[in-house]
Amino acid sequence: xxxPYLKRWSLAPDGEAIITRSSHLLxxxxxxxxxxxxxxxxxxxxxxxxxxxxxxxxxxxxxFEHDTDAALLERATGPRSLLxxxxxxGDNEASRxxxxxxxxxxxxxxxxxxxxxxxxxxxxxxxxxxxxxGGVLTTCAxxxxxxxxxxxxxxxxxxxxxxxxxxxxxxxxxxxxxxKRVHGERGYDFANTFxxxxxxxxxxxxxxxxxxxxxxxxxxxxxxxxLQWIVAYAGLSAAWFLSDGDTKNAESxxxxxxxxxxxxxx
Length: 266
Fold this sequence. Notes:
It contains ten helices and eleven strands. It is an alpha+beta fold. The protein is globular. Keywords: Kinase, Transferase.
């Protein structure tokens, strides 16, 4: 899979391959620069590199080379991790970094938009899941429906901002990777900061309440609207997990949704 690109782009392998469900990645050296060769396996990953090219290195990893299936990306070589930072007492600072990075991604640009998925279509799995499972998913779907019918501050979204999709690129600072080519209200992009089950403290008592004013201040969002997006996204994320049979991570999302709903009712 990698060999044609190693020859075409004159790349030297520089580490072990990383295999995921959606892509195969290989650390390489390109013109003396550390890079990451990414061969995408699904359509969203393939088209995600179009969004990276549109951002052109402003808040996101640069794309050095690309074709229909593969992209040669700037590689993160810095030692810091937002996930580790959040787990080791720096949760507030990690949230601020996420907000500052997202602000760069959401800034208007003069170049024509890439091929994007409208946010209402991105949510297409939530209503069927709510009908099938009921419970808090029903409330999540109702709130999502109201938000999607009245979207504000439309922009190109990352679509999957979380602590591991913003990485330390050394002298270039914190940059985003792996966008999902979504277009819609910018508030959506901050919801996973509160939901990401890879960060075990997302369900800890008081965590959402501490992070909400930080994110709303840094991102210039209204707390009620942010809470609604958290509920909507938690439902969508749970629906995705349930479709994979992952009840553990779905329950994490349900817990966050219940916390956010309780805040909306106060």
